Amino acid sequence: MTRDNLVSEVMNMKNEGCRFVTMSTVLTAEDAVDVLYHFEKDFEVTHLRLADQPLAEPVPSISGVYFCAMLAENELRDLFGMRFTGLVLDFNRTLFLDEEVTTVPLVNNCKITPTN
To answer: Which whole-number Å values give the CA distances from 87 to 44, 92, 100, in the listed order?
Structure first.
């Protein structure tokens, strides 16, 4: 999946009757993350993955499809410094953080360490 087809893939999930559960992310490089979108239907969980998303580039928000996604997107904005275009409600990094917090808390603490 790419940024270009993210919203249409999420819309397909909604049209198939899937419930949006949450999003999660992990740093894959110093300046990139994998973003996982989690859905459920009939007790079966399905995931969409946006791989190696550069932190400097905004991701299209899915909050226009699933309004509740704005909470997960704001959380990723607070904790990883991610940016989203079209976010229906942007807390501007104050959903979980006080205004005086100027660092991104998890950007150096959630890296994947490959094992061989």
So the answer is: 27, 11, 23
DSSP state of 9: H
d(CA 33, CA 61): 16
Encode pLDDT of 62-94 as tens digits: 999 999 999 999 988 888 888 999 998 887 766
CA distances to 77, 92, 101, 109 from 105, rounded to whole Å, are: 10, 15, 9, 8
DSSP class of residue 71 equals H
* 8-state DSSP, 61: P
Of 9, 54, 8, 16, the closest CA to residue 35 belongs to: 54
- Residue-range domains of the chain with CATH: 6-85 (3.30.460.80)
| CA separation for the pair 116, 68 (Å, rounded) | 39
Helix (H, G, I), strand (E, B) or coil at 47: strand
CA distance linking residue 36 with residue 41, whole number of Å: 17
CA pair distance 26, 110, nearest whole angstrom = 6
